[in-house]
Amino acid sequence: MNILVTGGDGQIGSELKKYAQSSKHQYYILNKKKLNITNFDQILKIILKNKISIIINTAAFTDVDKSEKYKKLSNNINNVALNNLIKISKKFKIYLIHLSTDYIFNGKKKKPYLETDKPSPINYYGLTKLKAEKKLINSNCLYLIFRLSSVYSKTHKGFMLSIINQAKKNKKFYVIDDYISSPTSAKSIARMLVEIIDRKLIFSEKIKCNIFNFSQIGHVSKYHFAKKIIKYLDLKSKCIPIKKNNFRAVKRPSYSVLNLNKFKSIIKIKINSIDYEIKNILL
Length: 283
Ligand SMILES: NC(=O)c1ccc[n+]([C@@H]2O[C@H](COP(=O)([O-])OP(=O)(O)OC[C@H]3O[C@@H](n4cnc5c(N)ncnc54)[C@H](OP(=O)(O)O)[C@@H]3O)[C@@H](O)[C@H]2O)c1
Description:
The protein is 40% helix and 17% strand.
């Protein structure tokens, strides 16, 4: 099968490039320059030329703060552009795998979020992602949605890289302690996506046209996640916990742990713990 991946230079897109090499399928992993998902004609041309049968849409406007400031742009990429992928997927019977987020929830729940819990985003990024999910579910398209949590990699701009850079300066720095999630490596997501396609799991009746949570097992605050990074890298710097109210940033759900029971019982691919995956990435 020929598989098209959008957002090829992003955290997950970049990891997919590595795992795709060991797959029996042909992956076309294109960055924004080669494939802009807001450009219908460009997508159509690539789909026809390469006889694509699956699209993995990792392209997104993921900057939560900028999403609040540049609402139109964020909505265009995260929500409106999905119309293009849906239209083409329906016409050519392409399987559309889309990535969503724990930020569709408000964070008030004190237990891990189920796929069936009522979404209620508290920032604009979350709202655009929720609108996109709803649109895809109602589209009559062959789809699969994965809701992810706090995606990180050590090569791309994001939480892990920022902690590594600050910790290397050997000075004390502050990290929020009242935001709990399940940090998930981009690597583990790419590995899982390639595996569900290689093993044809995506075509199972129980899996297609469905939403699944996916994250690492466990949960941590950003502060404890930072401490783990410092520990595994054997760095000497000290990070200090603070409350998120000290930051004047855009609101984020303070608790966004995802319940993995549905993934574990239906998809059944091994999921690593937070610690295992951090060590695997850093060491
Ligand atoms: N990051 C997280 O913590 C997180 C958490 C939960 C869910 N997710 C979801 O997981 C998915 C992938 O996340 P990620 O962390 O890999 O994101 P990422 O690193 O920000 O990658 C997204 C990629 O999409 C590209 N892009 C932006 N606009 C585009 C367009 N119009 N056409 C084509 N490509 C475009 C970006 O390019 P430029 O950078 O050049 O704009 C970037 O390379 C997204 O759906 C995101 O919502 C992410």
